[in-house]
Every structure is written in C-alpha cells, then in structure tokens.
Amino acid sequence: MITVVKPSTRILSVMYYAREPGKINHMRYDTLAQMLTLGNIRAGNKMIVMETCAGLVLGAMMERMGGFGSIIQLYPGGGPVRAATACFGFPKSFLSGLYEFPLNQVDSLLNGTFSAEMLSSEPKDSASVEESNGTLEEKQTSEQENEDSMPEAPESNHPEEQETMEIVSQDPDSKEPKERGNKKDYIQEKQRRQEEQKKRHLEAAALLSERNADGLIVASRFHPTPLLLSLLDFVAPSRPFVVYCQYKEPLLECYTKLRERGGVINLRLSETWLRNYQVLPDRSHPKLLMSGGGGYLLSGFTVAMDNLKADPSLKSSTSTLELHKTEEPAAKKRKCPESDSTFQKLL
Predict the structure, then answer these.
(1) 326 or 241: whose pLDDT is higher?
(2) Compositional bias (Basic and acidic residues) spans (predicted)?
(3) Closest CA relative to residue 251, chosen from 227, 215, 235
(4) What is the CATH number for 258?
(5) CA distance from start to end of the chain
(6) How far apart are CA 215 and CA 302, in angstroms?
(7) Which of 4, 94, 268, 313 has its CA 20 to 30 A from that of 122?
(8) pLDDT tens, 68-102?
(9) Positive or negative, the Cα torsion across 132, 133, 138, 140?
(10) Confidence band (pLDDT; 50, 70, 90) for 314?
C-alpha cells in the first residue's frame, strides 16, 4: 500500500539524511530543528540565509514563517540551488517574500561601491552569447546540409532521385524561419527573465543595505569564519545567528574570531545527541545502532559594538583613565602605615 503524504520539513530532512546526506552536508533532522529554534524563525521576520543544502534549510524557514516576512538568500556561483525547496510545493504567495543576492557582491555592498551596473553587465553578456550561439548553430546546420548534399550530387542520374533531392532540399528552407522565430522568442524570454532577476537583486540589495535583519542562518560547505564576519554587519543588534558545520574545528576558529572581534554575546558551540527507542509492550529499550553525529552548531546574539573598541587610540586613552581611577592618592598610602603603628601602640 502507498500513502501519499503532504511534504514537510521532517519528512524531507529524514529522506535526505537517509538517502543523500552529502547533498545536505550531513545535517541531521534534529540539528535542523535546533537551527530553527535557536534562530528564532517566525512569521514576520526579515531573515538572511546562506546555505548549500539543496534548499532544505530555506524550505524549512519558509514553512516556519508561513509566507509572512522576507528571506534573503545569498548564493554562490551562477544561481541558487532549490531542489529541496521545490519539493515543499509552496504557493506563489510564499515566493513573493523570497529574495536572492549573489555572494560575490556582498563585499561591494559593504564597501558602498555596489551599483546596478554590476548586475546589468551579466545579462547582456549572456544574451550576446546566446545570440552568437544561435548564429553558430544556423551556420553549422547549413554547412551540414551542404555536406550532406555534396556526396549525393554525382549519383543523381535517375529522375526519381532528383525529385527526392528537391523535396529534401526544400524542407529545411521551409523550417528555417520557424526555427529562427523560436530562437528569437527564446532569447526574448531569457532577457525578460534576466531583467526580472536583476530587479529582484536590486530589491534584495536595498533590504540588505538597511542592515536591520532579524537573524542570520549559515549552513554551507564553505569555511564559516569569513562568511559570518561579513554577514553579521547586516544583522540588527540583539538578534540571533546560527552557523552549522559538519566539523567542529572550523567553528572553534570562528568562535575565537568572534570573541576577538566583539559585538556578540552568549556564544555557544553545541552538538545534539540522538538515539532512537523501540517502544513496544514489555519490550521498550533504546536501539543498539545510532547516528554517529549530526553536525555542530555555533549560536549567539548580536549586540551594538562600542565605538571605543574600533579605535586603538581611544583604547589607550581609556586604559590610562582606568589606571588613574583605580590608583589611590599618595596621601592615603602614607597614612596607612601611621594608622597601623598607632593601632599597635593601643594594643
């Protein structure tokens, strides 16, 4: 018997972890639940996510938010991978609050050098490549037709063969305008999609430039330290952030860098321990086989950074002031031994 079940985060995470754990960076379903809880994912939030887990983390966030709020997905490469997100079957209303932004443009956005021309240069190049590919394909097809007709020319002695040759030569000529029209429509549709994508990128850049995101989720195969240090600037103070990694050592390095940088509190590096139980009448016991590990999580909260920490000259001045405050006046130090001697005389 086959039962059709509505897809959910738990079903998809269990399926991916059992069949293809490499696609989700070996993230266990209880670790994903901890990420959603520690990241305070709820309706109405403005979240930033950078993940390379086939869109599973993104789909879990969209399901938790219920179509309310906005999610900005940062993606590496040419475009985001949302294979698992498509399995959820979200309606179009859920996708209206989903934005995407290329990861290689984050530095320009932080430096204030980002412009629409950086995004507009890519679609034009791709369109010109497609047009050139179309002309090359037409040239190749015409050359192939000429090559095919060349060996048949010396053998065309019979009238039947000449008629067949004429029919074959007439068919490609009649199909060429249709193929050209289809290619033009395809190019126009591609350009329209690229313009829409550029518009969505500009909207995502505007949302990021406000720097008031309600949370940050990072679950990628890249090293988490440079990602987190650059993306924390887009998060508002007193907001949670969660970083997932399959291994512990990269998160330990990220932990030390965050402590040196400042601006975060309540840092915690954790690992969940999962063990299944068999529940039967008079035969309930934990199973002998269990998962070896489901990854590690680094979580914390952002706080407003003190300007004194950023400027080293101010640090030195504040340290001298603190020394002056802690040191006692010289007069008091001289009176201490006299009081001790008089106290001994009285005794």
Answers:
(1) 241
(2) 172-198, 322-331
(3) 227
(4) 3.40.50.150
(5) 98
(6) 9
(7) 94
(8) 999 999 999 888 999 999 999 999 889 989 999 99
(9) positive
(10) very low
Domain assignment of residue 57, yes or no: yes
Domain range holding 55? Answer: 19-112+188-302
pLDDT of residue 189: 85
The number of residues making up the chain comes to: 347
Query: Which residue from 80, 109, 106 is spatially nearest to 95, judged by alpha carbons?
Result: 80
Q: Is residue 290 part of a domain?
A: yes
Phi, psi torsion values for 51, nearest 5 degrees:
-140, 150
**Residue 330 to residue 347: CA distance in whole angstroms:** 27
> If DSSP codes are grouped into helix, strand and coil, which group holds residue 246?
coil
Amino acid at 53: C
DSSP state of 304: P
Q: H/E element holding 46?
A: strand 46-51
pLDDT of residue 115: 76
What residue has token string 């309540």?
Answer: 266
Identify the band that residue 337 occupies on the pLDDT scale cut at 50, 70 and 90: low
pLDDT for position 124: 42
pLDDT value of residue 157: 46
Instruction: Give the separation between CA 331 and CA 307, rounded to whole angstroms.
Output: 36
Residues 121 and 128: their CA atoms lie apart, in Å, by 11
Number of independent structural domains in the chain: 1
Return phi, psi of residue 54, to 5°.
Answer: 60, 20
Q: Rounded to two decimals, what is the model's pTM?
A: 0.69
For residue 254, is it within any domain? yes
Q: Which residues of 287-318 are buried (b: 16+ CB within 10 A; e: fewer)?
A: eeeeeeebbbbbbbbbeeeeeeeeeeeeeeee
